[in-house]
Amino acid sequence: MMEPIEPAAMPGPAEIAELAYTYWLADGCPDGRDLEHWLRAEARLARPPLEEGNPE
Question: Which residues constitute the domain of residue 35?
C-alpha cells in the first residue's frame, strides 16, 4: 500500500508553473494547452524522486 504524500512534500504553485512553462516552451508555445501543461507538471512533481542513476 502506498504511503500518503505529506502536505509539506506537495509542490507549490510557483514550482508547478515553472515546470509547466518549460513544457509549454518545449511544445512550441501552443495556445489553449495551459491546463494540459499544468496537470503534466503537477503530476511530475507529485511523484517521488527517482533513485540516483535511474533514468526517468
Answer: 10-45
